[in-house]
Structure formats: C-alpha cells, structure tokens
Design a protein that fits this description.
191 residues, mainly alpha, 6 helices, 7% strand
Length: 191
Amino acid sequence: WITHYKIDVKPGTIKVHTYNINHYIIPHIGFTKLTEYTLSKHQKFINKLYDDCKLATSTIRLINGTLHNAMKKAKRMELIKNNPCEGAEFRKKVVSKQEELVYFNQKQASIFLEQAKKERAYIFYYIFLACLNTGLRISEAMALQWSDIDLEKKEIDINKCRLYRQENKDQIVFGPPKTNSGFRTLIMSDE
C-alpha cells in the first residue's frame, strides 16, 4: 500500500506512515490476514498501544490514521467489505493543571528576548522576536528568505516552511504550507 498505492503525498507523510508500519503495525498485527482483521481486533490493537507501549493518544491516532488509510484503499479495491478501523475508540486524555500549556506573558517574553540577545548565536533573538510578535511557526521562520520580507510595508509573506524530516546534512528542504490558510501575510511590529 505505502509503496504502490499511496501517491501524491508529501515525503514527510510517507516517512510517518512507514515508521508507523514498521514499528507498530507489522510487529503487533502484521501476522493477521486482511480479511480476518475486525473492529474488535483493531480495538485490542489500539488498547495494546495504550497499555503495553504506553503511547499518547495523539501518537495512537497517527498510527490508526496510517492503518485507516490502508484499509480504506483495501475497501475501495474490494479486498475487504468494511474498514475495521472505523469506530475505534480512543481514551480521553485527562489534563492535569501541571500539564496545561503555559504561555509567556509580556514581561516573561521581554526577559526571554533580552536573554536571547546576549547569546553568542544572536540570530536566534531575531527568530524568537519574529515568532513571538507575529505567531510564526518555527518551521515557517526557518524558511524565511529576504524576498519574503518587505521592510517598507512591514510585511512578511509566508509561502513555505522548512521540512526537517526530509533533510540530510547536506541539504535544507522547503515545501509549501500544509494547508491553503498557511499561505498568509503577517504584519511586523516596530521592533
């Protein structure tokens, strides 16, 4: 499925699917015949990922997504009648007070930026400043080029992101934002 039927997908997505297949799907259910794999067996697989592998719900949902896509294709090809991944249930994550995301307030952000200015790699100050002031994602900030920045209009054109998973030591890789709404123009502050 991953090599023959999954087409028109970013290489990073293929990498995630391949990892899920090799590290979770094949070791746990790879011996099961396609026609014998049921929702009941799939739910046991999901529960095993929670209980034995101690994976987070977000990771398990990614693994389920890989298998769901493969089963969807198998159904379209009439290899199976139903997609056994449909209807699987996932545990709700109980978020404790300690696990809640904590954001910088204005004072903390200022202290952080002042410290970043003092670092030997001062370039990070500008990256953090841009991210904090505009809401840039780090992959978008790392993909910026001078042609994306209009200092007179104080605008940043977001039209690409850095694709870390596809890089090697000799090559930096850029790609389009994941969705159309990722293409946008951001206004720079006076800083």
